[in-house]
Design a protein that fits this description.
Length: about 400
């Protein structure tokens, strides 16, 4: 099976009322009993996410959700998690039990999918026990819907074929270097090996960029900040220097002005989201005041060191640059707040562990609530004074 991380997989989310047959269908498509199935309403509590190879499309992630329609205290919390899962959904499979179908609920969900530009399909489950009259009526009302019994392999295969068709028609994620360089270019990567670097390995964006250079017929070299000057001097040509954001201050002084400079984080921001919004957001740092509030959001959890970029370095650099003392809140993982109204700025990590869809959902949430958003790399470029030079790379 492909080892593609979840952040690089299209997500298919099974959504619908509790006890609508979502988990059985999820297991049938997955080909294993990953989600617990029972006749009891609300058996699925937290979303279950599993990687699979959907042949012929390729690596995907399937997500089963707790379901809607349970308005008890605990049910409402589970429903929120189900709705949160839509932040990651490229395709939503709306599962409905033909004998417990609410047209109103389905239309509400379909409206939400449309608003969030999530491709969706309606699947009536439990087709093996649905009476003929109900089926005929639903067929007439929803001619595009599928009728699937999770115990009928042919029907499950039909559903997989439809999913394959939808996914194959989607635009492919553009390469990280898209529009910036072409084959034959030489990229130099500046990678600090300090206490924050994981032992014995590179991090995902660094590995991704090396692989992409090879895929696109480019050459690449790597150096620590201390060796960077020597490396550039020894290279016949350098088309782009990509640095770890935290080394911007040092690196900007080493890289000659005629060589383009950016960071891993900025490239990821351009690939995964809206780089223009991120650059505009970084420029808002200079407007922060003592009574401003900033949310620092990370898409995964990890150990914090005394030099932690999100909780220590960025707040310190903001205080130093602005001479002000704004308040900071922090969140990590999938717990990005719904209500951002108290914030004057959101500063997000590079988001290498989440999908483009989820990153864009977060950006959209900020945009809809009028809250500027930037990311670590773009903010650090601005804070180091190298902002204008690094932003130029994305002008085209
Ligand atoms: S905090 Fe963000 S950028 Fe860092 S590893 Fe996690 S997802 Fe990637």
């Amino acid at each position: 099976m492909s080892t593609a991380p979840l952040s690089m997989r299209r997500h298919i989310v099974f959504f619908g009322r509790t006890n609508s047959g979502k988990s059985s269908l999820f297991n049938a498509v997955l080909g294993q009993q990953a989600a617990i199935v029972s006749e009891k309403r609300g058996t699925t509590t937290d979303p279950v996410v599993k990687a699979m190879e959907l042949i012929p499309f390729g690596p995907v992630a399937l997500a089963d959700t707790a379901g809607t329609g349970d308005f008890s205290d605990i049910g409402s919390l589970r429903m929120k998690k189900s709705y949160d899962m839509l932040d990651r959904a490229d395709v939503a499979v709306y599962c409905a039990d033909p004998d417990d179908f609410s047209e109103e609920e389905y239309k509400k969900a379909a409206g939400l999918f449309d608003k969030r530009k999530i491709r969706h399909l309606l699947v009536f489950t439990k087709a093996d026990i649905t009476d003929g009259k109900t089926r005929r009526e639903l067929c007439r009302a929803y001619p595009e819907a599928l009728f699937v019994s999770s115990s009928d392999q042919a029907a499950v295969d039909d559903l997989k074929a439809v999913l394959n068709g939808i996914l194959s028609g989607m635009e492919e994620e553009k390469p990280i270097l898209s529009g910036l360089l072409s084959g034959g270019a030489h990229v130099v990567m500046c990678i600090p090996i300090d206490s924050a670097a994981p032992k014995g390995r590179l991090i995902l964006p660094q590995v991704q960029l090396i692989r992409e250079c090879l895929d696109l017929g480019m050459t690449c070299s790597c150096a620590t900040p201390d060796q960077l000057g020597l490396l550039i001097k020894n290279c016949e040509k350098v088309d782009l220097v990509v640095t770890d954001s935290q080394a911007f201050g040092q690196v900007a002084g080493i890289v000659p002005e005629d060589i383009k400079l950016t960071s891993f984080s900025m490239l990821l921001a351009a690939q995964k989201g809206d780089i223009k919004a991120m650059i505009d957001g970084a420029k808002r740092i200079d407007f922060l005041r003592d009574n401003s509030r900033v949310l620092i959001a990370e898409a995964c959890t990890h150990n914090k060191t005394h030099e932690d970029i999100g909780t220590v370095k960025i707040p310190a650099l903001i205080r130093k640059r602005t001479g002000k003392n704004p308040g900071f809140d922090f969140c990590a993982g999938h717990d990005f707040p719904d209500d951002l109204s108290r914030y004057h700025l959101v500063i997000h990590c590079g988001g290498c562990m989440i999908t483009k869809r989820e990153m864009n959902s977060r950006i959209m949430r900020c945009v809809e609530q009028g809250v500027p958003i930037t990311n670590y790399g773009v903010a650090l470029a601005q804070l180091s004074g190298a902002g204008d030079r690094c932003f130029e790379v994305f002008d085209a």
